[in-house]
Amino acid sequence: MAQVYLDYTLEGKVLAEDVFNNFGVLLLSKGSVLTTRDIIKLKSSGLRYVGIVDKMPSGNESMMKEQWERISADKKLVANYMEATGMLRDMYDTVSSQNKIPTVEACVEVYEKVCLKEVGCKELLRSLYLIEGSDHYTYRHSINVSMLSSTIATLLGLPDEEVEIIGLAGLMHDIGKMKIPAEIIHKPGKLTDEEFEIMKLHTVYGYDLIKRAGSFPEIVRDVALLHHERLDGGGYPEKRKGDAIPLPSQIVAVADMYDAICSDRIYRERTSPFEAAKILWDDACSGKLSPKIVGTFIYSIVSMYVGSKALLSNGEKVEVVMIHQDEPMRPFVKKDDGTCIDLRLVRNLNLQKLISEKNHAEV
Known about the structure:
Helix content is 46%, strand content 10%. It is of the alpha+beta class. The protein has three domains: 2-52, Molybdopterin biosynthesis moea protein, domain 2 (Alpha-Beta Complex), CATH 3.90.105; 63-270, Hypothetical protein af1432; 309-360. A five-stranded antiparallel sheet has the order 8-7-6-5-9. It starts with a strand and ends in an 8-residue tail after the last strand.
């Protein structure tokens, strides 16, 4: 057993002993797999060190892996995704603790674990937003953005070599967050104005880290810096406008927003890909995002969910039957009793979240 300092790098580690507060109240039991919420709870109780097992027991599977295995029948895809998550976590922890950037080769290895040339990639994309919980969000988000970015680049007809580089850029886009204080990254509530200004520096930190490595393609470096820029000049850190924002950065911006909206975060629950599509489309219409990128991506991604189960905003469970060309974010759905609803015509309802197709129950 190792006694280690309590910080957010312990997410996913296993407690080697019961943890009590100063009044003798049990906070967490031996064998618990630490989540972000657990770490916040322990820190708020005044604890500074905890006992961690040197190696997680083989029988102790994480909640995320259990969910993946319930959702997906393709064990190879699940294993690749979980392995990629672990590899990226180790690389990012090295950046955080040693200020050492991973090699291009190591990043390409992670990307190739989940790149969309794999058979069954549609199943993997369909399953991403059935996973509940914010555990490992930082690493999952980067992997998801990598997959989505390369998907968008492919849909736009870009050459295979550029698709791979953009996928790699998506993987590395948030690496600068490893230099942001953990208390800000994992804060469960809204950031203050001062904290948000610090958070925005992750773009500059990421650019500097990748530039210092010297071996990454220029696109990867620029995406780290510019993925929060918006076409109307309302982004950061340089407030660029229009064509001054390179296409790869515009692509990753769309993938970044989409995944953030569809995923559980420590401060809010996820929403459905259809709601995310609406938000993206509104931003495209208001001049913040590229209509071409958003339009191409939205129709393709939501079309994957035909046949999927979802939860309406009124609590009813439905199946997505048909995607409309003119308004893909408001599909034609069918309830369990066979009643059909065209969400283009019923504007007071929306698809709140996807639910598991297996036994029609929420994951």
